[in-house]
Amino acid sequence: MSDADVTPEVDDTPVQVSVPDNHQADHEEIHEADHEADGESDLEQGEAVEEANESVFRVMTVESVTFDLGDTSPHVHLMESEAPYRHLSVPIALPEAQALYAALTYMTGRRPSTHELASAIIRQFQADIIAVRVTRYEAGVFYAELDVMTPRGREVFDARPSDAFILALRQAVSAPILCDEEVLGQFFVS
After folding, report:
1. Phi/psi of residue 176, each to 5°?
2. What's the chain's Rg over C-alpha atoms?
3. Which residue would you say has higher pLDDT here, 187 or 12?
4. What three-state secondary structure class fits 27?
5. What is the pLDDT of residues 134-164, one digit of tens each?
């Protein structure tokens, strides 16, 4: 049998991203499950690794932004990138919904919008948004963080989810949007 006849096996174990609650770890510490020297996986099939100081985040994608005339505000719809494909609907203000739609469709104005300007400044200062994290949901409000790598090191900023989503999508390569498993757990029962 030749090497061309061998079909490689694909590991389809779901990817989970763990980030320390204090978010002081270097960018390299945010990683997918690697195989250790003994061949054991960091993650068992579908089980989340949870330590006392770590939260488990799921990778999400922006599916759409909608405005139902019967509702009080537009919503951005996030979908989990891997099974079980849970979704999350985050209410946002109308101007941010329009800006998010423009970012999703790669539209730019004749003059830069606030988010386009902020993205240009981030690029000019040679910084990159490395992740957006939806960290909690309290009293009807979603909270997010913008994780930025600068030439001087990593910085984490408190941000409204809508602004963070728009800036993430305005990057040359869109930054990943992560959602804390506890936030998803408030809306979905396993």
Report:
1. -70, 145
2. 19
3. 187
4. helix
5. 999 999 999 999 999 999 999 999 999 999 9
3-state helix, strand, coil in the chain (%, to 5): 25, 35, 45
Q: Are 159 and 144 in contact (CB under 8 A)?
A: yes
**Residue 100 host element (H or E):** helix 94-104
Cα(55)–Cα(18) distance, integer angstroms: 6
Q: How many residues does the chain have?
A: 190
**Domains, the chain, ordered by start:** 57-187 (3.10.690.10)
Query: Whole-model pTM?
Result: 0.72
What is the tens place of the pLDDT at every residue in 112-142?
999 999 999 999 999 999 999 999 999 999 9
130-151 as b/e: b if 16+ CB within 10 A:
bbbbbbebeeeebbbbbbbbee
Q: Are strands 75-80 and 87-91 parallel, antiparallel or unpaired?
A: antiparallel
Beta-sheet strands, E only, within the chain: 17-20, 54-66, 75-80, 87-91, 128-138, 141-150, 153-159, 177-180
| Nearest one of 52, 119, 89 to 187, comparing CA atoms | 89
Are residues 79 and 63 in contact, defined by beta-carbon separation less than 8 angstroms? Answer: yes
